[in-house]
Amino acid sequence: MSEIFKIVGVCLLTLICYLIIKPLKPDIAIFVSLIGAVIMLFMCVDGLMNVISTMTSFAEKTGINTGLFGLILKIVGIGYLTEFSSSICCNAGNSTLSDIIGFAGKITILIVSLPIITSLIDIIVEILP
């Protein structure tokens, strides 16, 4: 819980710096917000490692293929990275590039999810008479 307060603090500090720098040097202001975002992402790494550890533990306990859990984590990662990149482009004033990144992320998620879809279809075929 205290991690979110630290992240919000970094976010507000980044925002204040951005608002101060933007009228003076608009091109540098984007880098200030990007640096703040990267710092906040690094602050989340420990929590992400806990999620990966828990998912691996679930896979071992249930006997489910750990590769499927890995794919799920990749899909979530692609979604987050796509949203983050799209937001950066949108905030920089390039909504076209933002939309293209969003579309490319959705296509990539579909491609990465094909093994999961195939596994589900195999399970359904085995269950049906």
Which features does this protein show?
129 residues; mainly alpha; 5 helices; 89% helix
Summarize the structure.
With 129 residues, the chain is mostly helical. It has helices at residues 2-21, 26-43, 45-62, 66-91, 95-127.
Structure report:
The protein has 129 residues and is mostly helical. 89% of the residues lie in helices and 0% in strands. It starts with a helix and ends with a helix.
Number of strands: 0
Beta content comes to under 5%
Q: What overall form do the CA principal axes indicate?
A: elongated
Class by alpha and beta content: mainly alpha
Low-confidence stretches: none
Major pleated sheet: none
CA gyration radius, whole angstroms = 20 Å
User: Could you tell me the mean pLDDT?
Assistant: 88
| Termini Cα gap | 50 Å
Helix segment count? 5
Helix-residue proportion: over 70%
Reading the helices and strands in chain order gives HHHHH
